[in-house]
Amino acid sequence: MTSQHRAELGAAGELAIRSLIERAPLASSLAHAFAAKGFRLALVGGPVRDAILGRLGNDLDFTTNARPEESKKILSDWAESVWDTGIEFGTVAGKRGDTTVEVTTYRSETYDANSRKPEVVYGENIEGDLSRRDFTVNSMALELTGANPEFIDPFNGLSDLAKKVLTTPGKAEDSFSDDPLRMMRAARFASQLGFEIAPDVIAAMKDMAKRIEIISAERVRDEFTKLLMSKSPRIGITILVDTGLAEIVLPEIPKLRLEIDEHHHHKDVYEHSITVLEQAIEHEDRLGGPNLLIRLASLLHDIGKPKTRALIEGGGVSFHHHEVVGARLAKARLKALRFDGNTIDDVETLIALHLRFHGYGDGEWTDSAVRRYVRDAGELLIHLHVLTRADCTTRNAKKAARLAATYDSLEARIEKLMEEEELSKIRPDLDGAQVMKLLNLKPSSDVGKALDFLLELRLENGPLGQEHATAELLKWWEERKL
């Protein structure tokens, strides 16, 4: 180790310690609890990296020579709540105040060639534990149970952190063979941190992309979600596509590179989709901040185009009903990735509706059409506003301004009707009990059909009032009987 590296380590250690004292004062008390039982404890991985970068959060990872059962005993006394769902992999977690900690026994884990679960082998020293970490910038530790905190960096992670590059402690092929999810993690860190991935790491990702198939859908989903919710998802998505990983975990995305959008001849559908995602992110303040639904819907909104591509006589292409096909494909993909039902349904709805606005033209929609737009969007109306606006990626300034102005007018009409008619609470003018009494019916499908008729009447004409609605209902019922 050179004198310069020693100096860098000392400075980094001091910075990490200061960050810990300021942002995570409970770390020292946890270290004292482990030391009192004769064990060692070190802050490790991402929190050390983030402490040096000045972005330490309240989720802290530690490593120890204590076995999991011992860690659980210590945490049970120290934390307000403890959970051991990861104890078979050597991890016990706890929470005290706003701080969540995970304590993992020194370990070395590898994957069998065809297994989705790692075989855990406990280690005897922290250096061995650090050698099995994913990247050098996560292979640094801050030992807290000695006389003084000690910064440990056996793989020059500090240097890579300064250069903003992702490399692996050992051979990248060995690291990705042990845990193939690390390939997706590389793309995620590139998006989150703005780091480059070392050429040998990229080469290994390309060579070993198919190895991701042994990873469970849930772990792939979680890693992809973190990437998508990062500051710059374009970076990570492009890495997944370029390395071939997307071909396996999200094949609909690389297929977009083969299609030309009829509205955007200057860019392929892939580039358009990424741009829509970025533009939607710019408007997330309307949704209260970073929003998974809008990011998923933006990225996937045009995935129906490859299946609906048709050549137009005389030149050009069309993608008729791609929103319907895309909604179905998105539902299937998100289901395969084990997203929850509500997320799947909402993304499907947004994709199915994302072209509806283009029928608005220059504002010639009737009030009835506006009511149906609001009714179909339901609680996703603001999401649909954001997606529709983001979907305008034309470089023609006049066209972009015209589309924005047209959508402004639609939102204004919606707000006006909202005030006049409470559009968000559209209901038939009569309820089920009134229908049954008027038509002398018991609960049945006829009652549902009557309510559907009244709702259509309400959407078409606005509020009718009970008297007018009763007359229309009785008229409809007599016509049905005839």
Automatic annotation (TrEMBL):
Domain called HD: residue spans: 269-410
Coiled coil: 400-427
CDD domains linked: HDc (cd00077), NT_ClassII-CCAase (cd05398)
Matches recorded under InterPro entries: Bact_CCA-adding_enz_type3_sf, HD/PDEase_dom, HD_domain, HDIG_dom, NT_sf, PolA_pol_head_dom, PolyA_RNA-bd, tRNA_adenylyltransferase
GO molecular function, one term: tRNA binding
GO biological process, one term: tRNA processing
Obligatory cofactor(s): Mg(2+)
Keyword entries, A-Z: Coiled coil, Magnesium, Metal-binding, Nucleotide-binding, Nucleotidyltransferase, Transferase, tRNA processing
Name recorded for this polypeptide: Unannotated protein
Organism of this sequence: freshwater metagenome
